[in-house]
Amino acid sequence: MGAVYKKEMRSYFTSPLAYSVLGIFYFFCGMFFTLIFSYGYTTPTLMFNQMFIIVLFIIPILTMRLLSEDKRQKTDQLLLTAPTRLSGVVMGKFFAAVTVFAMAMIMFLITQAVTSFFATVDWILFISNALGMLLLAGALIAIGLFISSLTESQLVAAVVGFAVSLLLYMMDSLAASLNINIITKLVSWISFYERYSSFTQGTLSYADIIFFGSVAAFFLFLTVRVLDKKRWA
Amino acid sequence: MIEVNNLVKKYGAHTALNNVSFKVNDGEILGFLGPNGAGKSTTMNIITGYLSATSGSVTVSGYDIFNDPLEVKRRIGFLPEQPPLYTDMTVKEYLNFIYEMKKVRLPREAHIKEICRLVKIDDVYKRLIKNLSKGYRQRVGIAQALVGNPEVLILDEPTVGLDPKQIIDIRTLIRHLGKTHTVILSSHILSEVQASCERVIVINRGEIIADDTPDNLAKNLSGDNSLTVRVMGPKDEIEQVISTIDGIMNFECLGMREGDSYEFKIETRPHMDIRRELSEKMMENSWSIILMKYNELSLEEIFLQLTDSRRPKIKQKKDTESNAAAVRAKAAQTVNSMLGNRGKLVDDPDEKKGRRGSKK
């Protein structure tokens, strides 16, 4: 796992990928913060709420080449014939993406530092927000990694990733417009936005933490199965 | 020791490997010879645990690839058909990555340096792989397989894309490695296999059609009944004289060469050496022979001969021992049928028992 993690981190930062992701993230984060701050709000909740859509659309870029590139360049042959477990390979890639995302989240610390000059910062609320975003990102990265394992093309991986993100984004409003009780209930249960917004309100519930954690675990498991499929089918 | 038993690989309705069995002893250099799509890479991919088999088993040093994949993978260095290189890394970074990936315990610095020296990539050690030529990339691929000093090396077409000097270097390297490693290499070039291997398995359409030493294979299949002769002298008269030599099955004139001589292709009966008689007869007429050589069959021709569909096939038996016998018998039959059953070259162990059902 360590070798793959190090390799992925290297490859994020020797290509423009990580820099563009970080750049885009910093830009929107800064913009939302400035706008919200200029209206006189100091709570991080609003900013984190706005960032939801940015996270949805930035993560497919972060994950698109993780496994598809290995398939295309045939380096998966190396990973699959090395004396390591596949789960280690997948986890190495997963944590590399999570690390890059965590680096993006450093920006929030800066916004809070700025805020602290003008108002008292509610650090507990901030930590709840940040934790929520990290869990959301973890789940999305696992989904993106899974999509990346299915194709040889980064582009396809990114497009499918965006489609999934779009679906997750629109799910709530679609369900609301359908107005069928059972569907609304079901959707609100799997809705990423609802789960995430309860973090932004400062409500830490086990259910939400376990929800994102198990989505991530489930898709990581599926990814390992996809890679392992060659050995069985 | 590698044991492959009754390996079958099916892709849907297409059978890529059909009951392939063989053994490779420690320290042996085995060549896998076959045309594209014969199943060489598939077999290698299964041995290394990259692909699964539909049925059959592979064991390396007693460990089964399906039950103990990690133990097997630890013992194998694999160079796939396309070297698995991360082109955005330098050679140094790449080999260090492989070192960590394989969890090697040897002293890192010295081990990697040693490998670089062996495959002659020290001069590009700090360069990006994407800027290297095909030959260098191939050698980085071989270096990758050597990391961790595994007992078994599996090299899929190791000399593809190299220039002649590099090919010679790699062959020398493989022979050198063969002293301390078990090596399986694949190729579709006969001379390549001849140059580096002690044993050759010829594979076509997923089936082993011959398993022998390269010399025997070359001797039995190619060459000793076909001669090329270039004689300085008048064409018609030479032809007349040649036709009087006993043991010649047929001959043809291939045309004028070097201005004043003619080239002939002469086919003799198997194991008839007509060279002496031929040269004496030419001398009598004071025509000079300026070239005479046995024709080596190209791989294509060998394949045509080995895979002649009219040839009866023997069904392979279940266990390895008799399987090997079946393969030998198969090869023998092939050779014999090739010789048109005039004089048996190789004993056919199944001849006495009568032929078991023939396919096709």
Task: Describe the protein.
The complex is a heterodimer of chains A (233) and B (360). Helices cover 85% and strands 0% of the residues of chain A. Chain A is built from eleven helices and no strands. In chain A, helix 3 (44-63) runs parallel beside helix 7 (123-150) and helix 6 (86-115) runs antiparallel to helix 11 (206-232). Chain B is of the alpha/beta class and 360 residues long. In chain B, 35% of the residues lie in helices and 26% in strands. Chain B has helices spanning 40-47, 69-74, 91-101, 108-119, 134-146, 164-178, 190-196, 214-221, 235-243, 275-284, 299-306, 320-338, and strands at 2-11, 14-24, 29-33, 55-60, 63-64, 76-79, 152-156, 182-187, 199-204, 207-212, 226-232, 248-257, 261-268, 288-294. In chain B, the strands form three sheets. In chain B, strands 6-7-8-3-9-10 form a six-stranded mixed sheet, sandwiched between helices. A four-stranded antiparallel sheet of chain B has the order 2-1-4-5, sandwiched between helices. In chain B, strand 9 and strand 10 form a beta hairpin. The radius of gyration of chain B is 24 Å and the shape is elongated. The chains are: A mainly alpha (233), B alpha/beta (360).
Secondary structure: elements and pairs:
The complex is a heterodimer of chains A (233) and B (360).
Chain A lengths: L1 H13 L1 H23 L5 H20 L4 H6 L2 H6 L4 H30 L7 H28 L3 H25 L2 H10 L1 H9 L5 H27 L1
Helix pairs in contact in A: 1-6, 2-3, 2-6, 3-6, 3-7, 3-8, 3-10, 6-7, 6-11, 7-8, 7-10, 7-11, 8-9
Chain B lengths: L1 E10 L2 E11 L4 E5 L6 H8 L7 E6 L2 E2 L4 H6 L1 E4 L11 H11 L6 H12 L14 H13 L5 E5 L7 H15 L3 E6 L2 H7 L2 E6 L2 E6 L1 H8 L4 E7 L2 H9 L4 E10 L3 E8 L6 H10 L3 E7 L4 H8 L13 H19 L22
Parallel strand pairs in B: 3-8, 3-9, 6-7, 7-8
Antiparallel strand pairs in B: 1-2, 1-4, 4-5, 9-10, 11-13, 11-14, 12-13
Helix pairs in contact in B: 4-5
